[in-house]
Amino acid sequence: MSALLRTEPLVVVRSARRRFGVRAALSGADLTACSGEILVLLGPNGAGKTTLLRALCGRTRLDGGSIRIAGGDPADPAVRRRIGFVPQSIALWTQLSVRHNLELFGRLAGLKRTDLQAAVADTLEWSGLAARAGDVVATLSGGMQRRINIAAGTLHRPDLLLLDEPTVGLDPVARNEVHQLLDRLRKAGMSLIMTTHDLVEAEALADRVALMSAGAVRAEDSLAQLIGRLFGSDQEVVLMLAAEPAPSIRDALRDARLAPTNEDRVWIGRLGSGLEHLPELRSRLIDAGADIAELRIRQPGLHGVYIELTGQVPHE
């Protein structure tokens, strides 16, 4: 992970508010992002992540508050040219070749004819797509299409790239290829803001994490700083059960301030009372009927941070 660049923020969001009917999608969100970093937006469904992303690229207007990108308003065409946007859905002409797609996206981004071919050639090269330039998009894998989607958003060399769930639905190999692509862009000095539900992905990629809930950013910092601020010297306890817990066991686990993970037999919680209380916790759970396969401690991670800040269990 490269060191953060200590520069003036490229993105500054203050008290962003947006309603859709009776629903408040954004309720006073604040956010900052600097050049050359990857900022990951995390939060439960309905937290406001996609609305904030769309507001950043000028596709959704705010009801109140402000957004400044390089000091300007994203509604300004000159500012929007400094922004790239990669939607969650594959936005490609599937019956055309990779090269033809990039040429069309380059024109839509306002590239002059004299610059277009050089931009397409450069993009094909750095994205690793040069060998597939003549292939029809429909014949390519989902992972390859995701890479084309990202490449299309960078043809005009934006300062800021916004990505909504850029690896959703990909297998581990394809996901890793996309991660390498994003890391390459970050190392080239581009600022990236992306949403994801994958905590492992966030830990691997993020220079900083912004946790959103109910339309607001609850905390924004590096993972190490968030862990230090929320947990201090406390550690995390990990409980592995031998079988899926019955409802009464679930109640006992929650009474012990443990929370489920995406695996029904694995629960985690905060251990703030010292290691000497771990046997007491074990005995308490066994007395409640829990069939414990393993009980151990570890340093807190993003999963624990997510639960502390949102009060919800993440869908990893």
Can you put this structure into words, describing what you see?
The protein is an alpha/beta fold. The protein folds into two domains: 11-227, Rossmann fold (3-Layer(aba) Sandwich); 235-299, Alpha-Beta Plaits. It contains eleven helices and 13 strands. It has helices spanning 49-56, 77-80, 98-108, 113-126, 142-152, 172-187, 199-205, 223-231, 247-255, 278-287, 302-310; strands at 11-20, 23-33, 38-42, 64-69, 83-86, 160-164, 191-195, 208-213, 216-221, 235-241, 258-260, 266-271, 292-298. The protein has a six-stranded mixed sheet, sandwiched between helices. It has a four-stranded antiparallel sheet with strand order 11-12-10-13. It has a three-stranded antiparallel sheet with strand order 2-1-4, covered by helices on one side. Mean pLDDT is 89; it is low at 1-6.
What is the name of the CATH superfamily of the largest domain?
P-loop containing nucleotide triphosphate hydrolases
| Average pLDDT number | 89
Count the strands? Answer: 13
Per DSSP, the total helix count is 11
**Whole-angstrom Rg:** 22 Å
Task: Report on the biggest sheet.
Answer: 6 strands, mixed
The backbone outline, from C-alpha atoms, is: elongated
Order of helices and strands: EEEHEHEHHHEHEHEEHEHEEHEH
Percentage of β-strand residues? 25-35%
Strand order of the largest sheet: 5-6-7-3-8-9
Instruction: Name the poorly predicted regions.
Output: 1-6
Helix content: 25-40%
Report how far the terminal alpha carbons are from each other.
22 Å
